[in-house]
Design a protein that fits this description.
Mediates influx of magnesium ions. The chain is built from 9 helices and 7 strands. It has 353 residues and is an alpha+beta fold.
Length: 353
């Protein structure tokens, strides 16, 4: 689970763009464009934001993807050329936003959290995906190169695909649907880690087990924070009166909302499982401690009368007739043996052993 560095902009006017690093980037942001309709697909790499204008103003559907929002000057160019609101650009740049839906009239702004599982580091990786939906275009802003949208690109390249016959709002749905589908993959990995931890907990729990439970609970809280608000985002899109979301897309949004509910239900289930696992661990450790104390108490109970006997015969009085008995030592040892065996048999009879 990677935490983002906070960007401090105290005292600056709203809408001020403050980049996460003071050092200039060594590469340009990768900006790609898909322009398509039912008959034609155009796929280009964009070097200047102004190159997008002829496509965005056409009647075709245009998808522009930006893979690095931290490239200095990039968002300013989008704001200047396409007239985006400074507050929206600020939210795109500051990638610690919660999932949300905002209506700016001529375009909609959506924030979604992309999740992935890093098998090498055994942790969940989060990335903010910002979507700007216009009449005939959709612009996606990512934090870094690499995404999960190759399947969508292949669907766009195919002539007979539904997306080629649909408008920009369906493309926005398709992007969000791929993000939510990846949630299920991440939860499956998360579930495997819980099952492995349950096996350790059942066989031989260790102090590391409790630390791993706490780590999983923290990741689950992080997951819930990233996914839970998406329910309201999709519900807002369903209820939206904006002409940018067409009636034909509402059915797909309803299905997407159902998928998000399934994800949140799984998260709640895992949370309950981890809480139960913590209780089981604490109970197991408590029972193990009680068993140890029980054994020590039984040993103490057996040796207590023996210590009493030894204490009596170890007193240094001059007038102690028993010290002159010819078989006093053997008698004392026999008495101690009988007492110890008797105590053991008594505990056995009471089923304390």
């Amino acid at each position: 689970m990677r935490h983002k560095k906070n960007i401090h902009k105290s005292g600056m006017p709203p809408g001020t763009l403050v980049y996460a690093t003071d050092q200039p980037t060594t590469r340009d942001a990768g900006v790609t464009l898909f322009d398509f309709d039912e008959q034609l697909v155009v796929e280009n790499a964009i070097h200047e934001i102004a190159e997008c204008l002829p496509f965005i103003n056409a009647q075709t559907v245009t998808w522009v993807n930006v893979d690095d929002v931290q490239t200095p000057g990039l968002l300013e160019s989008f704001g200047k050329i396409l007239g985006f609101h400074p507050l929206m650009l600020e939210d795109i740049l500051h990638t610690d936003q919660r999932p949300k839906y905002e209506d700016y009239g001529d375009y909609l702004y959506l924030v979604v959290k992309m999740l992935d599982f890093d098998s090498g580091k055994n942790e969940i990786v989060v990335e903010q995906l910002s979507l700007v939906l216009g009449e005939n275009y959709i612009i996606s802003f990512q934090e870094r190169p690499g995404d999960m949208f190759d399947a969508l690109r292949e669907r766009i390249r195919k002539n007979a695909s539904r997306i080629r016959k649909s408008k920009a709002d369906y493309t926005a749905y398709a992007l969000m649907d791929l993000v939510v589908d990846r949630y299920f993959d991440v939860l499956e990995k998360f579930g495997d880690r819980i099952v492995a931890l349950e096996t350790i907990l059942a066989k031989h729990p260790k102090p590391d087990t409790l630390r791993n439970i706490h780590k999983l609970r923290q990741e689950l809280i992080f997951l819930r924070k990233s996914v839970w608000p998406l329910r309201d985002v999709v519900a807002s899109m369903q209820r939206a009166e904006s002409p940018l979301i067409r009636d034909s897309t509402e059915l797909f949004l309803r299905d997407l909302h159902d998928h998000v509910l399934r994800v949140t239900d799984s998260i709640d289930t895992y949370r309950d499982m981890l809480s139960s696992m913590q209780d089981v661990y604490l109970s197991t450790i408590s029972n193990r401690t009680n068993e140890i104390m029980k054994v020590l108490t039984l040993f103490s109970s057996i040796f207590l009368p023996l210590t009493f006997i030894v204490g009596i015969f170890g007193m240094n009085f001059r007038n102690f007739p028993e010290l002159d008995w010819p078989h006093g030592l053997q008698g004392t040892l026999l008495l101690m043996l009988v007492t110890g065996v008797g105590m053991y048999l008594f505990f056995k009879y009471k089923k304390w052993i």
